[in-house]
Specification:
This protein is an alpha/beta fold. It folds into 2 domains: 249 residues, P-loop containing nucleotide triphosphate hydrolases (Rossmann fold); 77 residues, Alpha-Beta Plaits (2-Layer Sandwich), CATH 3.30.70. It has 12 helices and 15 strands. The protein has a 6-stranded mixed beta sheet with strand order 5-6-7-3-8-9, with helices on both faces. The longest helix has 16 residues. It is elongated and about 75 Å long. The two termini are 27 Å apart. The structure holds adenosine-5'-triphosphate. Adenosine-5'-triphosphate (ATP) binds next to strand 2 and helix 1. Pfam families: ABC_tran. Belongs to the ABC transporter superfamily. This is ABC transporter ATP-binding protein. GO terms for molecular function: ATP binding; ATP hydrolysis activity.
Amino acid sequence: MERALVAEDVRREYGDRVALDGVSLSVDAGEVFALVGPNGAGKTTLVRALTGTTDIDGEVSVFGESPATVAKSRLGVLPQEFTPPERLSARELVAYYAGLYDDPRDVENVLADVGLADTADTHYENLSGGQRRRTCVGATLVNDPDLLVLDEPTTGIDPAGRRDLRRLLADLADGGTTVLLTTHDMTEAERLADRVGLLADGRLAAVDSPAALVAEHGGENRIVVDLVTEPSEDVAATSGATAPSPAAAADALDETGHRVELRDTELVIHGIAAEEIGSVVDDLEDTGIAYDGLEWRQPDLEDVYLAVTGQAVTGGGEPIAESTDTDSDDTEAETPAKPSASEGETEVAQ
Ligand SMILES: Nc1ncnc2c1ncn2[C@@H]1O[C@H](COP(=O)(O)OP(=O)(O)OP(=O)(O)O)[C@@H](O)[C@H]1O
């Protein structure tokens, strides 16, 4: 199997901040690989390292070559920040990028792929956030790349559009395109990716298929009970239930033989199979615990991320510090693509 991407011991520091702390990774051709992690985990820095748009220590290769020398026609890269000229329509933008290649895809087909066939004549500045992002994804597809690198491609796209985009990426992968994307959205990663890399504080904490990660680190099925913490006349009147303190509620349920964990005002009851939900509800009533609601949850990638890194991926992570780094490569990476006269190719995102 050809390796599309290989990173070995990649490090990137900004002043005394370590953005990538020895990341090694390989992605096979035809794979869909999702890098997940909260804000500041290092996703964008890793994307830039892999696409040769930031200086690093360590080694990176793309289809066996340095990112600097690999044929640009093999790559489609969508950066997190990408702002094409606003006075062009979606069709004109996609056509513009297509015009930079010797053998581009049909513009109308690309527009249809990203769900913009009906809005293709609208100026970019008048498109919604999601439509803009789809236009940008379309611009990465014009050269029918072998490797697509997409930094948060679904940002701003509504659920239906996300579903369509997931389908498109799955179809492209079926056709042999390698896809590396970043996302905060664990559900998206779980649905889309063959393998997921959990990035935390510049390190890859775990890499595997979503199913394998959940099986190994996700824990058990559980019921989460949202406790009533204030005395409620309604609850007392209808069920006779009182509102014991969360700690007392946990103790009471513990005595019924359940494995109970108290998390703030939630009780987590571990190891509950679907057919046991009814008996847990009975036990809650018998012990007089008042609750606003309860939810049965199966483990997912969010649980895995928490178990492996000790951080919640949805918590937003650390705030991104203001840049103190003035490297010119970093400035360039945010700049919209310019045609490359010598090669007749575009770097949509580099
Ligand atoms: N140009 C820069 N100058 C200084 N620090 C930077 C720069 N770019 C990134 N960093 C820092 O490197 C770390 C990783 O940032 P990065 O943008 O790679 O994270 P991310 O996972 O992509 O976050 P987000 O989800 O918010 O896009 C952060 O601590 C960030 O503050």
